[in-house]
Amino acid sequence: MHNRLDGQKQLVRAAMCAITVLALAQDALLAAEGPVLPGTALWALASGAAWTLYGALLRLRRPFAPVRLGLLAAMLAGVVTLGQSFVAVGTAELVTGRLPRTALVLAGYALMIFAAMRLLLEALSVPRKAGERRFPLPGSAPLWLGALLLACWLPWFVCLFPGTVSNDSISQLKELMGLTPMSNANPVFQTWLLGAFRQAGLWLGSADAGVALYCMMQAVLMAWLLGTLLDGLRRSEAPRWLFWTALAFYALCPIFPTFAFCVGKDTNFAMAVLFLSLMVKRVVDEPGRRGAARYAGLCVAAVLCALLRNPGVYLALLTLALLLAWTLRRRERRETGAWRLPALAAACVLGVYGALHLLVLPGLDIAPMPESENYSLPLQQVARVAAGGGLTEAQAEAVAGVLPVEELKDAYNGELSDPVKALWREDATPEQKRAFWRAWPEIVLDNPMTCLSATFHNTYGYLYPGYMSVIKPTLLIGDQSTRTASVKGLYDYSVNPLSEGLKAFTDRLAQNPLYRLVVSPGLYGWIALMSAVWLLRASKGRLLSAVPALFTLAGCLLSAVNGYFRYAMPLYLSAPLLLWLVVKGRVQRQG
To answer: Distance from first CA to last CA of the chain, Å, rounded?
Structure first.
């Protein structure tokens, strides 16, 4: 009987391996170029890797459970399959036109993705053995770990010194110098923060000093924050491999030094999101413990999320509302007074945000964020339908009140909504805007597949591992003033000549698929979804600590740019934390 079961497993393993290799070998999208795996050596390598992968899977006690993981794998496989078609031709044509081959590719991808996630979850479920030695560190471990990360990032700073200044920061510098009107399009708090470092540089006699000071302060804070997370992993029951993998990831992945030494709003916001997640985790782990440090930490983290990114207020309030509901759900939590922490933090967010938008911005005559900034999804859908001539006469008339219909075809870019948003008529009347919003659902219902295609085209990079956008720069290295008017002659910061060599080096690395897998945001979108799917059934409110990262992923899917690295920064920083939460959730359930 035992031999019979082993034989059946081997047959299943062989079938899964065959489907996977055939799926990889079929270029369902670019058949003219032949198979993805030319050559006997690559065929053998792919077959051996698949055989090993499925052998490890079938050795598990329940290899194909849970079902929800299989559904997630199927969804992600669909994203990758469709994404390949959109990369090639900008539509789903190469998938829908070759359904048998597409089904094979989809099945092969789904099997691989499921096996990888299932084995990862299994590896995370093996807690550290009692008495197993931790990585020893003297004194304050977060500081030592942070110093180690800084040392690993130092070569990047040598090539980037005094630091990269992003396009958004150049726009903010122009506002600070009175070249353009002050606006909250880039959060005004971040603009003032940049202004403080600019002024410090002027006092020190050099624009480079201000840029370098900003970047060094930012890098130190990021290193300390990541060191704190690593120390928590080191001291927890998480398997040792997770700590070492997280340490290597933070130390060696180019994302972290590149954005640590970049003057821009995204790095600060990403740190605020991770800080909020860690503070929420502390409340969930020890709901009965309070203290001034906990109150201050949660309040500061939530307020920073609201100040450093315009939609950050919704992230902070949603997270705090869910945390408040969790603390009130059970009597023992209510009696400890744990609910006071999220309640106070939410009050701080509302107070600061209200004062900023009701008093400060109007009082200083600072323009609010343009309303079209939040309209990427509907405007891209309408523009794609209009470009294909799918608007009815009545719909075109309603759209014309807020957008020049005749210009939409030339402006539409499937991976970037900025050109279409730039056409939004700020002088449109309330009646014209209401007419547009009444027409939009009708346009979607009349052209559902076209609208779905427009949305997918603008988002798939956040769930397609290895996809690197070519619409905008990915890693911000060197001179970033090509798309925004320069401030040369008014604020003369330097662009390090070594940065060109560094950029060329990273461009060469981008030819390697494993490098693309590590640095592009799709993998971290997967980690966020996998963690959420598992934590839905975990106890002790572990999912609450993942809410900020999940909100960030949702924001990326609604953003203006497909697969933009800097928008996904919170996902990069939070990935080890999400896996740590899965560890604690699995250990809790098994316990």
So the answer is: 33
